[in-house]
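Incident log, structure service

09:12 report received: a user says their structure output differs between two submissions of the same chain.
09:20 pulled the input from the user's history:
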Amino acid sequence: MSHARRGTVWNMLMSWNFKNWYRARILENQSIPDDLWKRVISRLDFLRGLNHVELKRLRECATLFLHAKQISGAHALVVTEEMHVLIAVQACILILNLDLDYYDDWVEVIVYPGEFLRTYEYTDEAGVVHHESEPASGESWLGGPVILSWEDAAASGRGYNVVIHEFAHKLDMLNGDANGCPPLHTGMSQQAWSESFGRAYTDFCEEVEAIERDAPEAGAHSAVGAGIDPYAAESPAEFFAVLSEAFFEIPLAVKLHFPVVYTQLALFYRQDPALRWIKGVPDRT
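09:34 re-ran on a clean worker, output below:
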């Protein structure tokens, strides 16, 4: 091995050791208090089935997240300790078996009391630029903050989870603008991902159009009827984010209606929430 290569390996090893030492110090001195931790996990049904080892890892990840990120209230909202931990836990469930480094390129979470106005612009076919505003419950900026409505974050459940949704966008943005395909792990197939999501997205859009055209009753036994938000039909990026919400909140519905997508999400997140729900673990102390 050349001196240059040996030096690079040594530097990488030292960096890895320092990161682990630093994280250990944070966990030792800033751990989430037991009573607060128990209150938070009791509020989140999607944690059902996590075993003791996974809950310990989730607690550690949330602790490190809170140390690394600034969570601030907007419009005079006071963000309590419990709100901090609730946001951190929901953000960290996505990276439970990945690493906090997936959230490295930004630092701030901004929390509004309720919906906020999202402004954007677009150019029409005539070349005219339009500036628009619309109410939103969450937003993620490339390289910037995550913005959340606390009213919506507190109402999460049964397939809807604005925190998971926005943090899924953050993962999607790791290779640029959100497009429904985050950077895949070694061994995952780009073709399999694209084909699985592309086919499912097309079918879902057709399903939503049929429900809107015919009658709501037509969707009673559909993915929409099972709790998948029709907003997923907005774009491939929104489809990935909405399916990520459902993957953790209502995994059996995703596995039933989108089995190949479920497989890809399980490979990416390195988790199997449907199995957790089937097995269940009542004792989470």
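09:41 both user submissions now match this output. Likely a transient worker issue. Closing.
09:42 reviewer note: The chain has eleven helices and six strands. The first strand starts at residue 70 and ends at 73.
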